[in-house]
Amino acid sequence: MKYTRQGKFQFTTKDPICAVQLLSMEKFMGTNVVTDIIWENVCSCFLIFDIPTSTPLEELAIEIQDKNDCIVVEIRRFLKQNSTKEVSPVLITILGTTIPEVLKIWFVHQRLQQFIDRPRQCNKCFSFTHPSRICDKSSACYLCGVVHIGPCQQPEKCVNCNGSHNAKSRSCPFYIKEQKILELKCRNHITTGEARRIFQQNTVKYSETVKTMPAVTNLEDTINAKFETPGNK
Prior knowledge:
233 residues, alpha+beta, Alpha-Beta Plaits, four-stranded antiparallel sheet, 18% strand, globular, Pre-C2HC domain-containing protein
């Protein structure tokens, strides 16, 4: 059991009976509570393509479960940007942490692609660590990072890394870092918070290793001496 920064208690158990008891809990130490499963830890997400948008998702979910011995937790399509039109890829979430290589759907073997979400940013301050709905900062310009009214007249400056690009740039070191964190999350079936903590710990260990490595000032002399032939001595 641990206490999260969001003010919640997180329980971990391998006992199915204990899990059922926790999920049915309505009071904890005299306080009314609501319980739920952390789906990231017990589910897998993947994409399948070439499914006609006219195919009902309920029908597709039934076909997947009947022919592939798996439980579909969620199934949805993506919408075309700035439109209500649905596009071909279907995002499927199944119970379990193992993704099959193929799915049999209507006598056709469909190949899968693991789904790794893109980094999400707050639309007010452009941080990667919280959503807009809980942000208490004033809305800033994503181009220069300053709070102002009207068209931006300032040079581009990222509010996250102070680089000479806007806050939504995919070349930003912070964006690339978040991509790696989300990949770590998806491949290891852990929460975003756990993935961020592991990533930061590994980064610190790498930095400490680099700092403690002895500097080689006479590298050229060392290489020459190592490959010097006996006849040249």
